[in-house]
Amino acid sequence: MLVKEIIQELEKLAPSAYAEDFDNVGLLTGSPTSQVSGILVTLDTLESVVDEAMENNCNLIVTFHPIIFSGLKKLTGSSYVERAILKAIKNDIAIYAIHTALDNSFEGVNHMMCEQLGLTDRKILIPQPGTIKKLVTFVPKKDAAEVREALFSAGAGSIGNYDHCSFNVIGSGSFRGNAASNPVIGRRGETHYEEEIQVGVSFPKHSEKNILNALFDSHPYEEVAYELTSLENSNQHIGIGMTGLLPEEMEETAFLEQVKKTFGCGCIRHSALRGKPIKKVAVLGGSGSFAINNAIAAGADIFITADLKYHDFFKAEQRLVLADVGHYESEQFTKTLLTTYLKKKFANFAVVLSNTETNPIKYF
User: Fold this and answer.
1) Rounded to two decimals, what is the model's pTM?
2) For this UniProt entry, which segments traverse the membrane (predicted)?
């Protein structure tokens, strides 16, 4: 098994195309063509985690947080980041970071928070813009079905709970090939008119390369006419944060007690209680203060996230309860998600869940 083959499967769960611009996801150390002896899954890649990988004969670390976040100007071992990177490189250990690509996945970080809380009817809190693209192409009528099927097989034409979606218009296309052309239909130097079908399909932007390859492979023309556009439609399955419903309403303090137990919090910092039952819950793993207004707009009774500052709590304004459960605590189930996913994809391969405690925050 090669590093790049593991990455290909992780891209299916959390395409790096949907990572935030500020982030540093992907292969941070190592070669994509290296053979993999084993995979260690962790939330953070510290020097002690690299040691754990070596002890378990794992030469690929799949980490949630990227150990290299901003640029490194030197590698002298003077910081915990440099020491971890140096040890990984010296011991030929590859590091792959998934971070906000998994934050924006429907089956990612916030999905796991909802799972732990037993929430149903889950929806993305902040859909990521620009994730849906549209392809329009022009195909001879007799070849349209074959081209459509190729596009569908490559991942085009899915809208919510429906697939094989396309729009088709019959019309007349014209073309004239020059002396260097080799037309499939008609003759070079002569204007030809052909009954064609205009086929339109939408697709997720990370599939663009596969979609275009399928188009070129299936289309009969020497030169394929097509148009690509980015849509402003909201994507129901890509974005950060999530909302969900409790099976039954809960009193506020009882729900906070459940949250504290579920996430193993040393404490929960929260805004003033409202004296209203909790039914709709918004979650966002990691630092989520930027999404407070989105949670309010979504009609959430409580917003569970991390890293809220003093003035953030004023934004609740009795419209919901803000609950800070801790950064590590909100994301801790992510490594279990990744381990389970990789074990299913590579059933006969060593995938190890890291036992190293990486939470830098302690409670007294």
Assistant:
1) 0.90
2) none
